[in-house]
Design a protein that fits this description.
mainly alpha
Length: about 425
């Protein structure tokens, strides 16, 4: 029983006794509920939802009773508990799982000392690498017919392989830089709290040194391309470092990410010897392809941002998903229209034939429309599924259309049809 001490002003008054009893029992009920929520989840002591985190819960409303004695209102405890629970957790309270070394997959075969660095570059989650690679592939396939002479398949394949290597390296460098900037934010987001820097497996100093190694490796890949690629490629490093800062100052960091991840839409042209400064059709095609990929990046990363939307509010991180939480699918539809429109404009500037437009624009419209219609933005797992597989649905369709157009031109299929028409 919670002891009651009634002031002299309450003595002899049944109404005073009743009020005091209701207040004490109500206060006890809310306190018990808070304790029950904490104990039933049994989080680790270092967790942000540990009992120690509730030590800061203080009564929000107090009023004087009796001889000036302050009695806390139960409403204050309820509001404080609600605020703490919502700001510390995404949805209902769950027990945070401690870190466990990977038992399956590629990382499980690596030495334990290397695993944190492999996790740092997301080696076990290659979807981001694919998203970085696809714009490079698109520009290579679109530029190949514009090269003089037309780039042979072997040259296209070799350039594509270099781009894939560069995407793997530079995506890893970007992830490391991002985690360095976010090292004080990641521990407060459920999805990122076990990242190597956030959990202390990699120190910031070691991460900086590792970033330098990755950038040197990326430079080694870049010098394998024609010299002109250096002038086009190096400026992209400024964007790589800017994106993590954008999350702190604007609700549209996805636009900055789009500028960064889409840079490969330009690189395929100089890689195959197409001079953008002297070739107006090629420059127009590259600019339209770049804009198309920026729209695509914002689109798929807006879906990705919905996985962290509640944690982002608590951590003070801005995203387009927060800015347009109530009309996300409308925005996604607009981005899809922009992407397809610029994709068509790129093909027109490059003088592409019907295979290009059917393969790229039609497949993009079908896959993006299906994704926007089907994705459940309230489900973390469903957002992740569409983010992961949408990469191949949309990117694969566009690449197939461009590849088919390149082969048709390389094999002279359009020329044969022109001759048949003349005859």
């Amino acid at each position: 029983m919670l002891p009651l001490r009634l002031g002299s002003s309450f003595r002899g008054s049944s109404l005073g006794i009743s009020r005091a009893w209701n207040q004490a029992t109500s206060k006890r009920r809310w306190t018990s509920q808070i304790r029950l929520l904490v104990v039933s989840n049994q989080p680790s002591p270092s967790s942000p939802t540990s009992p120690a985190a509730f030590a800061s819960i203080q009564p929000l409303h107090t009023r004087k009773h009796g001889h000036g004695r302050k009695v806390s209102s139960p409403l204050g405890y309820r509001l404080a508990a609600t605020s703490s629970l919502s700001s510390l957790h995404n949805g209902p309270l769950e027990s945070p799982q401690p870190y466990a070394p990977p038992q399956t997959g590629l990382l499980s075969y690596l030495p334990s000392a290397i695993i944190p660095y492999a996790e740092l570059i997301r080696l076990d989650k290659p979807t981001g690498t694919y998203y970085l690679f696809f714009p490079c592939l698109f520009s290579t396939l679109l530029a190949a017919p514009l090269a003089i002479p037309m780039a042979p398949p072997l040259a296209v394949f070799g350039t594509t392989a270099l781009f894939l290597t560069g995407a793997l390296v530079m995506r890893g460098a970007g992830c490391t830089i991002n985690d360095l900037w976010d090292r004080n934010l990641d521990p407060h987001v459920s999805r990122t709290r076990l990242r190597p820097i956030a959990r202390g497996a990699v120190t910031p100093r070691a991460a900086i040194m590792f970033t330098g190694f990755q950038l040197l490796t990326g430079l080694a890949v870049l010098v394998q391309f024609p010299t002109a690629c250096l002038f086009y490629g190096i400026p992209s490093l400024l964007l790589v470092a800017t994106y993590p800062l954008a999350k702190r100052v604007t609700y549209y960091p996805q636009f900055v990410l789009g500028l960064t991840f889409s840079w490969g839409a330009i690189m395929g042209f100089p890689a195959l010897g197409v001079d953008l400064l002297s070739n107006t059709p090629a420059l127009t095609a590259a600019a339209c392809l770049y804009a198309s990929n920026v729209a695509w990046t914002v689109l798929y990363d807006m879906i990705y941002a919905h996985m962290d939307i509640r944690d982002d509010v608590a951590a003070g991180i801005k995203s387009i998903a927060l800015a347009h939480e109530t009309n996300t699918k409308t925005v996604l539809s607009g981005l899809a229209a922009i992407q397809i429109g610029f994709l068509a404009a790129a093909g027109m500037a490059a003088g592409a034939g019907p295979i290009y437009f059917i393969g790229t624009c039609c497949s993009a419209a079908a896959t993006l429309g299906t994704m926007i219609w089907k994705v459940n933005l309230k489900s973390v797992s469903n957002c992740w599924w569409w983010f992961k597989h949408g990469c191949w649905f949309t990117g694969g369709g566009i690449a197939a259309g461009m590849g088919g157009e390149y082969l048709a031109q390389y094999l002279g299929m359009y020329e044969e049809k022109k001759k048949e028409t003349v005859i």
